[in-house]
Specification:
- With about 220 residues, the protein is of the alpha/beta class.
- It has a single domain, classed as 3-Layer(aba) Sandwich (Rossmann fold).
- Helices cover about 30% and strands about 20% of the residues.
- It has helices at about 5-10, 20-35, 45-55, 70-75, 90-100, 140-150, 170, 180-190, and strands at about 60-65, 80-85, 105-110, 125-130, 155-165, 190-200, 210-215.
- It has a seven-stranded mixed sheet with strand order 3-2-1-4-5-7-6, with helices on both faces.
- Strand 1, helix 4 and strand 2 form a beta-alpha-beta unit.
- The longest helix is centred in the middle third of the chain and has 14 residues, at about 90-100.
- The protein is globular and about 40 Å long.
């Protein structure tokens, strides 16, 4: 899905087919954003993000699957140098508009989350967020996703991942296979330590939405 970074920064509407979600997923997300704000893209900052940065000096943050930019804008308001990535042009455009209205300038990039460095995302990052993106990345592309995240994270960086471990059947038709601790440890365990995880709710569908907190091990080297 990658295009030249300069195109992304000027707001180009040219969109190559996405590897990370496939054409069906790309159509679904574009349709959802064109017809309003999707239910998963809230104006409310995730409480876990607030907790992660509480009493912490600002650094560089990467928001993977940033949507309309709520978390990225919050971090920018706190003084973080933020990059947000999403493969839906409508979401990126809305994120830029909201950031301008808030008086901050996070960088929002249109591109494929499994090809982060190819779309101009450069290390280092102290904090990497993924709320509801990784769980929809097809299995065959997760090694690429993991490699990109690993190469961008500094030793000691926090990596926060949240998603469904059992996605709905309709999501599976788009290639989503969910996320669980075993999968994350298989992809990231060599370079990250899992320090915490919790369910988002006690009942119903949200009981399958799990939050994971990983930390980049100190032996990490950035290439």
């Amino acid at each position: 899905m990658a295009e030249a970074s300069a195109q992304h920064e000027t707001g180009s509407r040219s969109e190559p087919a996405s590897r990370s979600g496939g054409r069906v997923a790309h159509f679904f997300y574009r349709f959802s954003y064109r017809h309003g704000t999707p239910r998963w893209d809230s104006l409310e900052v995730h409480r876990e993000v607030k907790a992660l940065v509480a009493d912490r000096q600002p650094g560089r943050a990467l928001d993977i699957g940033c949507g309309c930019g709520t978390d990225a804008i919050y971090l920018a308001l706190l003084g973080w140098d933020v990059v947000g990535v999403d493969f839906v042009a409508e979401a990126i455009e809305t994120a830029r508009e909201r950031a301008a209205a808030a008086g901050v300038t996070p960088r929002f990039v249109l591109g494929d989350v499994t090809q982060l460095r190819q779309i101009g995302i450069q290390a280092p990052f102290d904090l990497i967020l993924d709320t509801g993106c990784y769980h929809s990345v097809p299995d065959q592309l997760r090694e690429s996703y993991a490699r990109e995240v690993t190469e961008l994270a500094v030793p000691g960086a926090d990596f926060y991942v949240a998603g469904f471990y059992g996605p709905p059947k309709t999501w599976r038709l788009m290639g989503a296979s969910g996320v669980d601790a075993a999968d994350l440890l298989r992809r990231f365990g060599k370079d990250f330590q899992m320090v915490d995880h919790e369910a988002a709710g006690d009942r119903g569908r949200m009981s399958r939405f799990i939050r994971y907190h990983l930390v980049r091990k100190q032996h990490a080297t950035i290439t």
